[in-house]
User: Which sequence fits this backbone?
């Protein structure tokens, strides 16, 4: 156990298909290791059973690599943190069982972390940091919400998707175009060479700061079905323009609600978080809108946008300061309780 004044935390993330470990010392990230899982590619989506099995194979080498890179001995740790949920139960259990055992054997407290709140904590890793209260558009593979963040540990959801997440909208559209999973980064890549005004797709008009992406998928599906009837090579011939047009539809829709929320709440510090904030169009459009509206905009470094353990470590640091520890009876949760 760490007997010095330093706060040194090892954090593990295994909620979906990335096995990740990070080490944080006094609020500064010393190591951030991620092992992805290619095994899902050929299935067009994450296969939960295969994900848990890969986590089991990866977790020891990934944790070892993080400790080594940080130059930290496990006996120097003050605490061990882990993603508690939301996520795939089998995958979460791998990280939770591992960290429970480690915390017990080292005699240090365990800290359970909410994965979604941790995406927001990515903003506290580097400077400059947003000023409270700020709005954070959290866009990941499983969630899309607008959060009003009032402190490092407190936030309120003021808008969210009623069906698919933004990442799912990217991935499902990509699947319709015959692209591999996860399709979001590929759509982003092809869109760079395409004409975003070539095709228009519909988004649903749901109220307030909420989103709905299921209509977009249907709109793309019907459009492709009709177009392929006329030309069986339609998708191949128009791939880059399709990607650019789909990306523009999703990004414009995301920003429309974010702008409304910013204006109605009188907030000018605006942040992005989650895997989809790696999208180049979303990043540049946010910067553009921010300039127009005199916003201070914040986007985490690329490696802190997609799933990683540095954000879990950062969230754990604040929980450690508040002495918010979890017991050995901590359980994973697939969804947040409502
Ligand atoms: O936050 P994240 O890594 O995992 C979850 O917690 O879900 O987000 C993964 C999502 C996937 O849907 C992936 O397609 C999307 O983020 N994504 C992107 C890009 N990079 C990752 N979507 C669009 N453009 C990108 N460059
Ligand atoms: Zn995530």
Assistant:
């Amino acid at each position: 156990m760490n007997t010095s004044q330093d706060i040194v935390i090892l954090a593990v993330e295994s909620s979906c298909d990335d096995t990740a470990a990070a080490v944080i010392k006094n609020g500064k990230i010393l190591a951030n290791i991620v092992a992805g899982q290619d095994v899902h590619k050929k299935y067009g989506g994450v296969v939960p059973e295969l994900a848990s099995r890969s986590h089991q194979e990866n977790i020891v080498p990934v944790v070892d690599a993080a400790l080594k890179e940080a130059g930290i001995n496990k006996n120097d740790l003050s605490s061990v943190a882990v993603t508690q949920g939301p996520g795939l139960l089998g995958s979460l259990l791998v990280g939770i069982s591992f960290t429970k055992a480690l915390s017990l054997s080292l005699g240090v407290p365990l800290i359970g972390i909410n994965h979604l709140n941790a995406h927001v904590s990515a903003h506290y890793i580097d400077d400059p940091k947003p000023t409270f209260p700020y709005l954070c558009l959290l866009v990941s593979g499983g969630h899309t919400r607008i959060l009003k963040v009032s402190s490092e540990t407190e936030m309120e959801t003021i808008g969210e998707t009623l069906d698919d997440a933004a990442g799912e909208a990217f991935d499902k559209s990509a699947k319709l175009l015959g692209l591999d999973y996860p399709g979001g980064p590929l759509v982003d890549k092809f869109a760079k060479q395409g004409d975003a005004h070539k095709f228009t797709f519909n988004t649903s008009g749901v109220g307030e700061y909420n989103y709905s992406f299921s209509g977009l998928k249907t709109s793309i599906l019907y459009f492709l079905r009709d177009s392929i009837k006329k030309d069986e090579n339609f998708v191949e011939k128009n791939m880059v323009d399709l990607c650019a047009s789909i990306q523009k539809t999703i990004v414009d829709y995301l920003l429309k609600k974010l702008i409304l929320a910013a204006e109605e709440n009188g907030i000018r510090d605006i942040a992005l978080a989650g895997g989809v904030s790696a999208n180049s169009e979303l990043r540049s459009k946010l910067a553009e809108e921010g300039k127009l509206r005199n916003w201070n905009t914040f986007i985490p470094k690329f490696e802190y946008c997609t799933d990683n353990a540095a954000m879990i470590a950062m969230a754990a640091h604040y929980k450690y300061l508040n002495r918010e520890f979890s017991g050995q009876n901590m359980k994973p949760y697939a969804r947040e309780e409502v």
